[in-house]
Design goal:
The protein is an all-beta fold and 83 residues long. The protein is built from no helices and 4 strands. The radius of gyration is 13 Å and the shape is globular.
Length: 83
Amino acid sequence: MPLMISREKHGGGYWDHPIKHLAPGEARIVFRDYFDWDQHALIDFRYYRGLVLSSAKHPDIAEHEVLIETIYGRVLYEATPVV
């Protein structure tokens, strides 16, 4: 899927990391929020904003934020017990 990866770990405002595509299973990404560039016109939250937890193929992108167009991704809920 096409995606934008932050230049620096934990974001920073630049989405120009050289990796522009990931195949299924290449990274574990956690959903953080919905995102939209526009702050004044139509805000349709076109992107999922996430954080790369790990990637065996691209270990250097761990802890980088990603933007994924909602048409290319899906969000799965994984229940965890509260201790």
